[in-house]
Amino acid sequence: MTNGENTAFTPIKDFLSSRDFPGYRGYQSDSEVFAHILHYSMVGLGLGIDAYKHVITPLQEEALLKHPDAEFLTHLKRTCRPLIIDGPNCIIGTSPDHTVFMAQDRKKLRPGVVGGKAGIYGLSSEICGLDAVIPDRDKTKDIQPMHLDTIIVSPDRKEVKICRQTESLNLPL
Fold this sequence. Notes:
The protein has six helices and seven strands, in the order βαααααββββαββ. It is α+β, with helices and mostly antiparallel strands.
């Protein structure tokens, strides 16, 4: 699910369609490419959710050169350049193991908030949405991700992790 605009829809769709994967066909919405980029990142490239933002909104050159995984991320940025989104976008997604995540693009003009308690977490575009579904949570622990953050909620809904693009990735061997 996305809240925003995907003005890079056509080049992203064209790149994904050229991968010869049957699921990357018949686009009905510009939001579909976000799910397909996640699939391509995780299944096609073997990356985790923590690397998804590096595909859709890579670090700018100065920050990239200082990153502990600079060589890998520079290569990823070059080879996946057609998958860079042009927002503003707030993305809420889920993986097959039921991990849920939220990420913003660099413009961060679409709001997003994550909050809850052990066993139940909500991801919303507005705090009032969390108030409506989880009113008895500790609101001081709500997280409003910034442009470098990916918020990841574990499948058991007991842990919330903030992955920052400036941190090391869990790269496959």
